[in-house]
Amino acid sequence: MSQLISKDQKHVWHPFTQHHTAGDPLPIVKAEGVYLYDETGKSYIDANASWWVNTHGHGHPHIGKAMSEQFQTVDHIVFAGATHPKAVELAERICGHLPDHFQKVFFSDNGSTAVEIALKMAIQYWHNKGEHKQRFLAMHGSYHGDTFGAMSVGQRGYFNAPFEPLFFDTDYLDFPTESNEVAILERAEILLSSGDFAGLILEPLVQGAAGMRMYSAEFLDRLTAVAQKHDVLVIFDEVMTGFGKTGKLFSMDHCQNKPDFVALSKGLTAGVMALGLTVTSNKIYEAFLGEETTKALLHGHSFTANPIACAVACANLDLFEHEETWQNIDAMVDWNQTFAQELSQFDFVANIRQQGTILAFEVQDTSTGSASVGEASYFSDLKTRAYEFFLERGVLLRPLGNVIFVNPPFCITEEEYGRVKEVILEFLKSL
Ligand SMILES: *Cc1c(COP(=O)(O)O)cnc(C)c1O
Asked: Which residues are registered as beta bridge partners of 405?
């Protein structure tokens, strides 16, 4: 065992990891472009985009330059009562890329806090207006993060069972399939017309952690319309779907009806720095204005609007403003379509689905003989077998239960994508 691994095991507690049964962590000592390198020099294609965050590849020179220049200019400052150019630039540019009513940006550090802040803003918005609306409507299978508010609106179950008695109450809609859409909309209509709901929160078009489950923009538009008809605030959690994943900059760019809040993180900083944004309208912002301090959003984090993270997020936007990035995203969409066709030859491959650069499918669980349709069964051993098979062949993919998905950085070449595909096909043929 390498020193790095033995010292890691002595002192490090990893996320989402049962250390009693987990294998050794992958000792990554270098990352460049689409590749990760371990201590022995072996390379891995990062087909998981480092937990869905990386947009333009590792060690991108434009990102690195922005980072070091910002460090030499303003490294970090308090953000209450002070400001700095990169926060202002980022806020202005993000609003420029979102629909016109998005005019105010609140900074935090990650996806969970971006969601948490949207929930708090929605509750306090109604509170400040003298209305008692504290309930949220969410969707089964959703994942919004690991802080208490975010867990309270997420899927309940084995990931958060010890905490469940402490969550606030949330109502859940079923995940839409062709046969139940009308029933879901009717139920939403009944619930949301009650006047009890502060907000509706959704992962738009793709539920990430549930196993890359996808639904249509038409359905999303209809659901958003029901909420807005009843004056219920709509929160899109675009922490995963933002920044090109769905083939457009944001999921909401596929929709007619736009939300009141959007939570952004992950791809926001090209996958390099920790930063979260909660973006909303002047209508919401203005409800927090008044003579009393208590009307304000009394929330903040030590590293709010960290200038280096903001500079990196601006540099990430520079790259998204390059034609070449979109050419590559469009090419990935095509490669995924072709790959989806090829996958359909396997009769034990089910629910092949694609939204832009994300391609996902389910492998029938051969031990039970049943395809777990829809939700990922997280404890399926296929996940471990597949993960190790791919790693041995130099591809890093982390299946969600029996769901295998590809979600690589947008700088991946046709040849590198071809290698990912080849390894997946080899795995399927081995079953
Ligand atoms: C990852 C994720 C979060 C949580 O973000 P963190 O940065 O991990 O806290 C929230 N919502 C969605 C949709 C996510 O995919």
From this structure: 360
